[in-house]
């Protein structure tokens, strides 16, 4: 038993197979036991008394290191409110930032794509191609349905009033509301890009309750101090703020050019301009 435990631990250290060889007296049972374990999922074989892995040669020569932390993982849900360009822009930004994306597109989210985006990039297949994993909103058996599947948060962009209401009530009858509920119960970041205008007291109360439960409601509002020249400029500005709110640690990177951040009035410049005038 102790031998088997030791072998298991050894097998999980990257680079172990460079130095480990088993003496011929090691019982076959131990060797067979070891066959099941590998730190990186590579197949193990035992040739004579040497244990070999099918890891490529350059990986084999890498010195043992601690396991790398996994990359950031975000659930992106797209529902049937107007705002599909926000969703595609967000997916493109997260892709550049090497964030692992899990996409859930609602039936009505899918239906609005062709009216709001330019062909050929206006289909559910296109959105799915930007994400790493894509799920049916009907599949509440998916990994995202469980808090044991670790994520770094979720964003619903755009978020319809119907989905907002479902999240507010904990009515988890599809994968979007279920994942959002899981995100809240696990105390992870949930951003709802809630889109409707004007707003009824029902919408406002729902927004208040999800905020009390820990979500961030982020209506995609226009900003004029950035002097947008095109709709895409407004989309970009909004999406950068969404990425801020996801709190992934990319704030400086995403605003590297200062885009969208308010830096105060340029009083000194204004005063010297006035003096010169
Ligand atoms: C073109 C179009 C635009 C819509 N825009 C909105 C909107 O901005 N906000 C909203 O709450 N619902 C909007 N709706 C209605 C939703 O699509 C509808 O309530 C749907 O049931 C939402 O379902 P889902 O949240 O599962 O996607 C829109 C529908 C269509 C067809």
Plain-language structure description:
Keywords: Flavoprotein, FMN, Mitochondrion, Prenyltransferase, Transferase. Residues 47-71 are annotated as: Disordered. Its EC number is 2.5.1.129. This protein is an alpha/beta fold. It folds into 2 domains: 2-60, no CATH class; 73-254, Rossmann fold (3-Layer(aba) Sandwich), CATH 3.40.50.1950. Helix content is 41%, strand content 13%. It is built from 12 helices and 8 strands. It has helices at 2-11, 28-34, 57-60, 84-96, 107-116, 124-130, 161-169, 175-185, 201-212, 231-246, 251-254, 267-276; strands at 44-47, 50-53, 73-78, 100-105, 133-135, 154-159, 190-194, 216-217. Strands 5-4-3-6-7-8 form a 6-stranded parallel β-sheet, sandwiched between helices. Helix 4 (84-96) links the parallel strand 3 and strand 4. The longest helix has 16 residues, at 231-246. It is globular and about 75 Å long. The termini are far apart. Mean pLDDT is 83; it is low at 35-51. Bound molecules: flavin mononucleotide. Flavin mononucleotide (FMN) binds at residues 79-82, 106, 108-109, 112, 115, 160-163, 195-196.
Describe, in short, the structure shown.
Helices cover 41% and strands 13% of the residues.
Using brief descriptors, characterize the structure shown.
277 residues, alpha/beta, Rossmann fold, 6-stranded parallel sheet, 12 helices, globular, binds flavin mononucleotide, UbiX-like, Flavoprotein
């Amino acid at each position: 038993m102790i031998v088997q435990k030791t072998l298991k631990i050894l097998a999980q250290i990257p680079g172990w197979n460079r130095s480990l060889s088993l003496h011929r007296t090691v019982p076959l049972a131990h060797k067979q036991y070891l066959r099941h374990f590998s730190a990186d999922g590579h197949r193990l074989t035992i040739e004579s008394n040497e244990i070999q892995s099918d890891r490529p040669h350059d990986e084999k020569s890498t010195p043992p290191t601690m396991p790398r932390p996994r990359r950031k993982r975000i659930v992106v849900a797209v529902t049937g409110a107007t705002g599909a360009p926000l969703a595609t822009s967000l997916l493109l930004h997260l892709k550049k930032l090497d964030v692992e994306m899990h996409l859930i597109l609602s039936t009505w989210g899918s239906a609005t794509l062709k009216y709001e985006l330019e062909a050929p990039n206006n289909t559910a297949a296109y959105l799915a191609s930007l994400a790493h994993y894509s799920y049916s909103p009907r599949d509440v058996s998916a990994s995202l349905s469980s808090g044991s599947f670790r994520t770094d948060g979720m964003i619903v962009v755009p978020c319809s009033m119907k989905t907002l209401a479902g999240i507010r009530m904990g009515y988890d009858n599809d994968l979007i509301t279920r994942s959002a509920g899981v995100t809240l119960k696990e105390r992870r970041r949930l951003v709802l890009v809630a889109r409707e205008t004007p707003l009824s007291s029902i919408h406002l109360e729902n927004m208040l309750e999800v905020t009390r439960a820990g979500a961030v409601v982020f209506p995609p509002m226009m900003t004029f101090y950035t002097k947008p020249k095109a709709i895409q400029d407004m989309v970009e500005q909004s999406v950068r703020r969404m990425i801020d709110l996801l709190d992934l640690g990319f704030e400086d990177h995403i605003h590297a050019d200062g885009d969208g951040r308010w830096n105060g009035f340029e009083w000194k410049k204004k005063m010297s301009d006035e003096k010169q005038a």
